[in-house]
Amino acid sequence: MADGTNHGVRPVQGGVHTAQAHDSALRHVTGAAPYVDDLPELPGTLHAAVRLSDKAHARILGMDLSAARATPGVHAVVTYDDVPGELDIGAVLPGDPLLAPDLVEYAGQPVVAVAAETMGAARAAARRVEPFYEPLPAVLTPEEALAQGLFVSPSQTMRRGDAAAALAGAPHRLTGDLRVGGQDHFYLETHIAYVIPGEGGELHVHSSTQHPSEVQHQVARVLGLPMNAVTVECRRMGGAFGGKESQAAHVAAIAALLAHHTRRPVKFRMDRDDDMLMTGKRHDFFVRYDVGFDGEGRILGLEMELAARCGMSPDLSNGVVDRAMFHADNAYFLPDATITGHRCRTNTVSNTAFRGFGGPQGMAAIEHVVDEVARHLGRDALDVRRANLYAAPDRDVTHYGMRVEDADILPELFEELERSSDYRARRREVEAFNAANGILKKGLAFTPVKFGISFTALHLNQAAALVHVYTDGSVQVNHGGTEMGQGIHIKIAQIVAEEFQIDAARLRVTASVTDKVPNAPPSAASTGTDLNGMAALNAARAIKERLTAFMAEHCQVAPEQVVFRDNAVFAGNHALSFAEVAKLAYLNRVPLSATGHYKTPKIHWDPVTQQGRPFFYFAYGVAVTEALVDTLTGEYRFPRCDLLHDCSGSINPAIDLGQVEGAFVQGLGWLTAEELWWDGEGRLRTHAPSTYKIPTSRDLPADFRVRLYDARPNREETVHRSKAVGEPPLMLALSGWLALKDAVAALGGHRHPVHLDAPATPERVLLACEAVRRRG
Amino acid sequence: MSGAVRFVLGGRVVEVRGAEPTTTVLQWLRANGRPGSKEGCAEGDCGACTVVLGELEEAQDGTPRVRYRAVNACILFLPMIDGKLLLTVEDIADEDGALHPVQRALVEEHGSQCGFCTPGFVMALFALLHSGAELDDESIHDGLAGNLCRCTGYRPILDAARRLRTTDAEDRFARADAGIVALLTSVRRDAPLAISAGGNGFQAPRTLGELTAALERHPDATLVAGGTDVGLWVTKQHKALPTLIHLGAVAELHTIVEAEGHLDVGAAVTYADLLPVLERRLPSFATLVRRIGAAQVRNLGTLGGNIANGSPIGDSMPALLALGAVLVLNRGGTRREVPLDAFYLDYRRTELKRGEFVERIRIPLPAPGQVFATWKVSKRRDQDISAVCAAFLLTLDGGTVAGFRTGYGGMAATPTRARTLETALLGEPWSIGTVTAAAAALEHDFQPIGDFRASDRYRALVARNLLIRFFLHSVGEDAYALETAHG
After folding, report:
1. Taking CB atoms and an 8 Å limit, are A691 and B485 in contact across chains?
2. Complex ipTM above 0.95?
3. Which residue of B has its CA nearest to A490?
4. pLDDT, average across residues A40-60
5. In the CATH hierarchy, which fold is given to the domain comprising B21-186?
6. Which residue in A40, A686, A695, B139 is a FRET match for A227, CA 20 to 30 A apart?
7. What is the spatial distance between Cα A96 and Cα B372, in angstroms, rounded to a whole number?
């Protein structure tokens, strides 16, 4: 080093492709990782609560706010009339009033907001609001909306070839329908925002959000402020899963409105029930299909309609339904297909982003179809799936015109998992078990995932980062991504550490703040690391280039002779620690801060023809799940599950394994016990963990074998050739749902069709069993 | 305002004055500089608020030691921890910052993602480690069933728990046991706790005499034992409870008498304390009780509370109905006995008179030759509420039914016997034919409702099929039960 020793030269700790602990792990386990509600409250902080509509559709004739206003400790009781700026906070299209004006359009819609000195007082005051409603007819299901032609946005169709002709000429043909349930995000931390007024009308907003820029935009809009007056900060979320993409703005803007009227800091932490009643969920879908196929089960023609319950407004539903349509092929070549997506308007909460963003529902539909085809032909569904896989050169273009350029990955994954899961032998064991058991039945299902990576809204496929090197050689990284548990900060620290060739411990990734990195897209669509990692890499490279040029000049060597390696910088015969270089560069007036920007290449989309290349690349995985069903009660277990997910080039295999396992179990919850139940008045009655059942530890498969596939680095130039992993493995859980169906079918010796909608609650499984029993 | 709640927080004695009696432990912690414990649901169903209570107990040799139990701070009223040790996630690392073994295991196994549930898991694992349980997968699941994680899918958390098997379980709390015993002994009261604040009162009598006296003064008081139901009246239903009488300190209500043919259980005995006895004497019921709530709920919740609150979906009642349990009710020291099947009058209405309370529960044990079983069916195996819960007690004379008692939950406004079914089978040969035929009688016994837990049709089907399952069980065909085949 500067003193001539090499003490500081040692391999980089925490570079890319290594398993690092989550950057907050130590703080998580000691309770020292603050979430918004854990921040110290400023003196004078008020607490917010909302009064939600208990009518699904009604005119508001009037409201008595006197009792609420008279509640001790109450400082403000506001309605839509108190909004100084724009009332509508629709994320893409209008339709979401901050507070309901003269009409409520779902049970759970906020009508009045209250600020009071304590949360108890605020909630008590909100309960004392007395609204007077004139009920209107409510449309509650996608089927009803479809029948009545009620949509939040026009239906769209993707076409390849001539599906009608292919169907007419197909040797086999099946038609049917399917219902795929929605899902509550059930992030453990409910929605929260803490708004602190500053000078000159400025607001600092602590928000639990995947999209600080959107919160900034909506808060500014609602208050009629320029965006430069609003700063939004998110250090971490206690889970999000898509639920804090557009929805967080609603919560923050209500708090901001109350802060505006009281000129006090206002915190709005939703209780679990209000959170589940007021904010959007995964869309449930009603699916109709008509499929034609050959004797091998190869699909020849498919017509499919995907009708989503969007709720009362568009929110992000266009993107969600589009993505369902994009994934109506899953991994299968559809030579002639017509896929239509309906965006049904219902008097229920406006559904929103949820991990997979419509992809899971589209995949559930096609996996159901393929399963039906296999059952119709009496063939093992694995063989039918394999026969339908995309394959170059003639069977590799999707129904939206995108070539699947690495179609050979899936056959590799199929072969590998079929072997390692011992699929064929276990199929025989399952058959033997079912022959010997009258009441308990086993099922087995093998399903693939092919999931498109990129936002389908083109402009969102960009990101920025801001990197500072300080004179002690420590580095601060800011980027537009947000931390919701997915470990984006440690991954980006690893990327920057690798670039500078310094230990990741020398880096600090800060909270996501709109005044450091503006105009960032949401952390969503699995793109967080792809986009922000590249942006941070570009920022680091900009600094590194300056340091390289400086060192070359300073040491009188060619720039190629300046090498960053092993926590040091080598320039010809000189070796300096990174800190020494930073200090030296500073003294020589070299700027040590840089921004980086990245935009995803290659993608394009024509909304008129519904053709293009919406995805930069695809992510792949395969799963085999075994189910054991009690046909007396419909209860079940999953004795074993094998997952093989393509995480080639992983920045952090430990984090990525966590994403695969966590997504799978969340998907299994969606498809099994997580049931959203509305009563006849359109009121959601499952709005807390006492009634809405996400998986517990005993629900994961008893024998759970998860492996990351590492043989196929990304063919596209992603950051270190890694692959996005946040959403795709959720859909591996479709194997669990179809294994249950397989077990039910075994009750009738696989002679009868089985209908099993999702979620496959014990009740649905038992009723499916009864239907099979009735056929003998 | 009078009286103070006194407990040991971490290592120091804390006195709290002026807190409303229905302030929850979680609210108090978060308002007093300890934001580590989180609110995820405020109804004791997610475990993010899990903290550990330490209490004195006697070891087998009679020496005092500390017993640690995980509880949900979100539904636990602050005065209920009077005299106890309260540990939160902030307390368990060493003073030099070295992580506790459970914290270290979670970090090394990548057991946290968003981290919001993590403090709860840390404390649940801490309690599990101190429970002395074999850390096999069954006990790990039992210890974690009350903690929801939405990110990890649990595998790394389970691996962290498994890692504790090989870790030296002795942490600084085990090493400091004598000191903690001394501290807890020092905060023992010599008079019952009575506090009032904000116009609300809370008292914790320590003897049956003090309890009956308190109830005579306040016949309309709300009795609270573990608070796993009453807590929600405050956090979810926003009820005012002006006078609370806590049963947790009444010594006589904590006893379990194991007699020849029956168990005699005090009304304030927690499920956790009852379980070891049931495992010895009535294992089928123990299996069901292990599925009531989760560890945090069973550590506070009581059989007496479950019975007295009279929910139609209380999971202990079907078994008690089938077994012919008898309640000892007490009013001002005057006792009367009421069979459980005469206790429920209508939805959440019971025989209890004003000022009367459930003192004991007498549970007849199945006689040799009798067959007993009870099952609950719910959407999720753990920490769920039954769609249907059923229990059966069969007495055979030769091959003929000499006695048949049932209990059903989830089928009517109260837990109840299926009397038509019982009558239909009496004197019949015990065969699949007669059982299947008699099952039709259930249609006379019940007209179940449909709601978010189950449709009426499903409830009716399951009620019938559990009877079929019981027949199979009675003839030794246990391989037909999912629990037997898989756990």
Report:
1. no
2. yes
3. B113
4. 98
5. DNA polymerase; domain 1 (1.10.150)
6. A40
7. 57
